[in-house]
Design brief:
This protein is of the alpha/beta class. It has 2 domains: 2-152 and 215-248, Rossmann fold (3-Layer(aba) Sandwich), CATH 3.40.50.150; 156-214, N-terminal domain of TfIIb, CATH 2.20.25. It contains 6 helices and 11 strands. The strands form 2 sheets. The chain has a 7-stranded mixed beta sheet, with helices on both faces. The chain has a 4-stranded antiparallel beta sheet with strand order 6-7-8-9, with helices on one face. Strand 8 (188-198) and strand 9 form a beta hairpin. The longest helix is centred in the N-terminal third of the chain and has 18 residues, at 20-37.
Length: 250
């Protein structure tokens, strides 16, 4: 379900941002600064374990990091390869599942990151713990795990919760995207993304993409990261548009 959702979204993902190129550059700058402040500087190997179409990978590469990028969605990975080619940038890109990271070697990365609220796609604490164990395995001693997530404890439960992205324009077309959250209790919700395209002639078509999220709290994520063996757990509210969590492998 996760893979097919992002396969369908990959061609349009950049339109969810007002300016995706600027957002990618800003996030890359912010992440490079955070990594550098923790002793992980240019030349270090970063594994982007939920790369999507490359928002963080593309932003980080100009700062001299060696990036391996993986995602469960073949469509997103394909889009990232296209974006790298267009920019003349290089990264190792592959399809992989952040729960297992089977394509990544033990102790091969100085940092493992998963941004843009990707880890709450894992619907149970057991899946989350599995992902954190896999990240731990892939990190060198002293390496950092870095996540950006929504603060679900601060989000009011409304049912349905309608969240429009805004109107975008591309190649003469109008593009409107809206999220609808439908809560199933307090800890999980179904997500629908409505993508509407209007041609210059006024012809419209709408796609509906479906996924599901685990509204796991930041406190619970930190507890699970600690259970996986991580230390020096921190929350940062001044790096990206979502809270950033960091932790170290001893």
């Amino acid at each position: 379900m996760i893979a097919s959702f992002y396969d369908e979204l990959a061609p349009f993902y950049h339109l969810l941002y007002g300016d995706w190129e600027a957002a990618s550059a800003q996030q890359g700058r912010a992440l490079a600064g955070l990594l550098g402040r923790h002793g992980i500087g240019p030349g270090a190997h970063v594994l982007d374990a939920a790369c999507g179409i490359g928002t963080q990978t593309l932003g980080l590469l100009p700062y001299g990091y060696h990036v391996s990028a993986s995602d469960i969605s073949p469509g997103a990975v394909g889009r990232l390869n296209e974006e790298l080619l267009q920019r003349g940038l290089k990264a190792q890109v592959r399809v992989d599942d952040m729960r297992t990271l089977l394509e990544s070697e033990d102790a091969s990365a100085d940092a493992v990151m998963a941004c843009d609220n990707s880890v709450p796609h894992l619907l149970t604490d057991g899946e989350l713990l599995q992902a954190f164990h896999s990240a731990y395995r892939c990190l060198r001693p002293g390496g950092m795990l870095l996540l950006s997530v929504r603060d679900y404890a601060a989000i009011e439960r409304q049912n349905p919760d309608v969240r429009p992205y805004g109107l975008r324009y591309e190649n003469g077309d109008r593009f409107l995207a809206t999220q609808v959250w439908e809560w199933d209790g307090d800890t999980h919700y179904d997500l629908r993304v409505y993508l509407t395209h209007e041609s210059p002639a006024g012809e419209c078509r709408t796609q509906v993409l479906k996924s599901r999220y685990h509204a796991v709290t930041i406190d619970q994520l930190l507890t699970l990261m600690h259970a996986a063996g991580f230390v020096d757990l921190r929350r940062h509210d001044d790096v990206l548009f979502q809270p950033v969590l960091t932790a170290r492998k001893p």
